[in-house]
Design brief:
The complex is a heterodimer of chains A (126) and B (404). Chain A is an alpha+beta fold and 126 residues long. Chain A is 41% helix and 19% strand. The longest helix of chain A is centred in the last third of the chain and has 17 residues, at 109-125. Chain B starts with 7 loop residues before the first strand and ends with a helix. The chains are: A alpha+beta (126), B alpha/beta (404). Chains A and B meet through helix 1, strand 2, strand 3 and helix 2 of A and helix 9 and helix 14 of B.
Chain lengths: 126, 404
């Protein structure tokens, strides 16, 4: 199990903010991201208030423990953030927080892609 | 998550523990009886040679072969390489180049597929047969692929990932009718199923000791003496050991261990098979009773007693394994788990990527009992439920079902 850092295993075993938001809650949106061959998928559910802050964030993930851990870590950072702050979150910050190896670091892009997908949808809808 | 010191071992298709009696039989040949079996000038050599010949007989007896048909190798990978390269080259040479076609199958082990690829680089034409949705090779497909130029057909007996047992006797008969030699990788099946080289009608058969509670580092290729098609040339050249087919000083302790393990396997085989089948079906029944969305990969009954390969839809295999430190199981095969790509075997069955990535292989063996199977089932059920609760794939499926 040495291929997974202690930080990854901590998120994988006790994910924060897993699941989805209640259907039809006002201001909710979801965004999807997957890697090239579809073996790793992250979906974020966001509730954005009138103040342009992410009031609540949840994730769903299919993939290796790292995919689950990066989604969990991203959600922990996104909840309470403004949209501007959320868009400033960088993959290398998540990779560092989770002590990902260089080969694993690309997976940290998945929640950020899902975030952009969701926010783009929100913008299109408004 | 509780700390565990020793996981429940359910990976007997990867390897098995060396039996204590087998180890005891081997030990003197590391210390007092250290002779070289090829030494013809003193008693050390004579005793080592006698031990090797006894082992040769024990291994031969496991598969209904003659002791003179056993060529010891470093394992099944080397046996497969010797069969593929040795027979394909010999048969092409002896036919003055007319036979330059090799047939194998898409679900073979890499130790057959990679030599096939290398043979292509030597100018051989290679046909890889597909399998049906349950993993079986259709004899009709082999019949259609055989022609007057086919030198060798290589089809495994039991698959290492999904446990499916191929109809070798029918396939070997078709090859013989076309004048082609037939090789069979029996690394998984020997010791688990009845394997008889005459009944199967094969020309070459690969064996491995560590899959049947023997030591790692030794296997054998059975080369039939009576078959006109069992032509072969060595791939290792040197001192002319093993009737010139595999040079290199014999590892006497490993030969002795292989022999002892083969004898044990022959005696225990039927009882083991019945018990492992019962445990396998118990595991599947427990999982099926509690979890929707699980798919058994491979034919339900034409399979190894102890192998169960299941896809837990919506959960990725690597994640499930990481969530189960209390169990020693594998995703796909041991080789693919390092490489992180969907199993070529499951893809050959037509499994979609989601199903292929969601597979776990349980390999039940002699050390397992009902209490372990029940404990394993409970752990798997809990972790599949946990991971499905956060899976977008599972969520989409569930919602799609709810709509219909």
């Amino acid at each position: 199990m040495s291929e997974y850092s202690a930080e990854v295993l901590a998120h994988f075993r006790c994910p924060r903010g897993a699941g989805r938001l209640p259907d039809g809650a006002p201001g909710t949106v979801s965004g999807d991201a997957r890697d090239a061959d579809g073996g790793q998928r992250v979906r974020l559910h966001l509730q954005v208030g009138a103040d342009q802050r992410i009031a609540r964030a949840r994730f769903q993930a299919f993939g290796c423990p790292i995919a689950i851990a990066v989604a969990s870590a991203a959600v922990a950072r996104l909840e309470g953030a403004s949209i501007a702050e959320a868009l400033c979150l960088r993959a290398d910050e998540l990779a560092r927080e989770l002590a990902l190896s260089p080969e694993q670091a690309h997976l940290a892009e998945l929640p950020l892609q899902a975030l952009r997908d969701g926010l783009a949808y929100l913008r299109a809808r408004s | 998550m509780p700390r565990v010191t020793r996981a429940i071992y359910l990976d007997h298709n990867a390897t098995t523990p060396c039996d204590a009696g087998v180890l005891a039989a081997m030990l003197p040949y590391f210390t007092e009886e250290y002779g070289n079996a090829a030494s013809r000038t003193h008693a050390y050599g004579f005793r080592a040679d006698a031990a090797v010949e006894r082992a040769r007989g024990q291994v031969a007896a496991l598969v209904g072969a003659d002791a003179r048909e056993i060529v010891f190798t470093s394992g099944a990978t080397e046996a497969n390489n010797l069969a593929l390269f040795g027979a394909a080259r010999a048969l092409r040479r002896e036919s003055s180049g007319r036979r330059d076609h090799v047939i194998s199958c898409r679900t073979e082990h890499r130790a057959v597929l990679d030599p096939c690829r290398a043979l292509e680089r030597e100018g051989f034409r290679v046909t890889l047969l597909g399998v049906d949705g349950e993993g079986l090779v259709d004899p009709g497909r082999l019949h259609a692929a055989l022609d007057a130029r086919t030198a060798l057909v290589s089809i495994m007996h039991a698959n290492n990932e999904i446990g499916v047992v191929q109809p070798i006797a029918a396939l070997a008969l078709l090859a013989a009718e076309a004048g082609a030699a037939f090789h069979c990788d029996a690394a998984q099946s020997a010791g688990a199923l009845g394997v008889d080289v005459t009944q199967l009608g094969v020309d070459f058969l690969s064996l491995s000791a560590h899959k049947l509670h023997g030591p790692k580092g030794i296997g054998a290729l059975v080369v039939r003496r009576r078959s006109p098609r069992a032509r072969i040339e060595p791939i290792l050249h040197g001192g002319g050991h093993e009737r010139g087919l595999r040079s290199g000083t014999l590892p006497v302790p490993l030969c002795v261990g292989f022999g002892a393990a083969a004898e044990l396997a022959l005696a225990a085989r039927d009882a083991d098979a019945a018990r492992h089948t019962r445990l396998r079906e118990r595991l599947l029944a427990r999982l099926s009773a509690e979890l929707p969305g699980i798919v058994r990969n491979g034919h339900a009954s034409q399979r190894l007693p102890g192998n169960l390969n299941v896809s837990f839809i919506g959960v990725e295999g690597e994640a499930l394994i990481a969530a189960l430190p209390e169990l020693a199981v594998s995703a796909g095969s041991a080789c693919t788990s390092a490489k992180r790509e969907p199993s070529h075997v499951l893809r050959a069955l037509g499994a979609g990527q989601a199903q292929a990535l969601s597979a776990l292989r349980f390999g039940i063996g002699r050390g397992n009992d009902e209490a372990q199977i029940d404990a394993a089932a409970e752990l798997v059920i809990a972790q599949v439920r946990r991971l499905r609760a956060l899976s977008p794939v599972w969520d989409d499926l569930r919602r799609a079902d709810a709509r219909t």
